[in-house]
Amino acid sequence: MEHRLPYKVSRARRYWPALTAPERRRRLVGMWREIGAVLARTISRCDIPIPCEEAAAELPGAALKRYEDALDALICAWVGIQYLAGRCDCYGDDTAAIWAPATVSA
Q: How much is the pTM?
């Protein structure tokens, strides 16, 4: 993947500057559902009770942060699964590194 997925609450305005706040929250929830569907292919029972798009549109951004945090935890677990399976590449040096999945099959 050559870009980061737009799923962070704090960056929603940067992702979609022309949209209203409720529209941005709808987009976030849609992206979360897409990410969740992909994660569910590898991690069973990874359902996050994400609010529907209309409910999300009415919530303040801070109220959505907990869903983003839960999704981040699942993404980290997925990367760990990929690492254990030998499907990650290391980026860094002898003092620090990040491990990222070598390929993403969506």
A: 0.82
